[in-house]
Amino acid sequence: MGQWVRFSEFDVTNERRVQKVKDFLDKNALELSDDVELFVTASEEGEMVACGGISGKILKCVAVTPRLRGQRFVLKVIDELLEAAKRRGQKELFLFSAPKNQAYFESHGFRLIESSGDEVILMENSDNLAQFKEGLRQKCVDGKNIGSVVLCDSPLQERETALINQALGQCDWLHVFVVCQEGTHSPARTEALRQSLASFSRISVHENSEYLISKATFPTYFIKDQDHINALHGELDLKIFKRHIAPALGITHRFIGCESDVNEAYNALMKELLPQVWEDAPPVCVVSLG
């Protein structure tokens, strides 16, 4: 590496420079996520040698040219991204990466949340997960059978109403988790759904959280095959639910409808992963209703 590398910052409106980032990622067998709002690039003698992006609270599209890998240069890129995020008032961040980079990011203040196979890790640079779980524990309700369902923040449909009624018939308490429709949080939609759930007894409603991983936030830029992306997304989402969310609330059952919004592969993965006993997580029974 030469004596100087110049970093620069620009947003998604600079189409010419965004195209250069896309080309650089292509050369490094990566893809540009279309939700990145801010970019940081590093150039040496006019040649792009690294890049990274920020999408909301998530660091994405971090790449370093092959000749600079192994020199911890990726940490310099992360430094620049963190500074860019700080200037925007965003101090709490998440990142997805390959497991081989975990030690790099841990040395930079990030903590592992969960991994998906040996291909994807999710990390954060705050203790928000611990705070999130403590908040859930305060909403824990005693009971032998504690259920859970996941709903999109859209108007309650007849089949969702039937699912909730059937679930309540089999458990002492039901935790309803609301996830963003297509990854975009709408307080108005969430409040409308909450109002429609007000007529039910023995339920708690939990609004959207960063720890309910949406397909909109899951990384696609370093994985090419869409079916494989879906499988890794599902595994990561379910492991977080299994290890962190379910134990905090004492959840014993997760209910799904026969016409659930989630696809067949996700349902199959749920049935495989949730009943397993890990050292730090009790089993969760998956119940299909319809």
Automatic annotation (TrEMBL):
Residues 1-128 form the N-acetyltransferase domain. It comes from the Bacteria. GO terms for molecular function: ligase activity. InterPro entries: Acyl_CoA_acyltransferase, Citrate_lyase_ligase, Citrate_lyase_ligase_C, GNAT_dom. Keywords: ATP-binding, Ligase, Nucleotide-binding. This is [citrate (Pro-3S)-lyase] ligase. It comes from Sulfurospirillum tamanense. The lineage of its organism: Bacteria, Pseudomonadati, Campylobacterota, Epsilonproteobacteria, Campylobacterales.
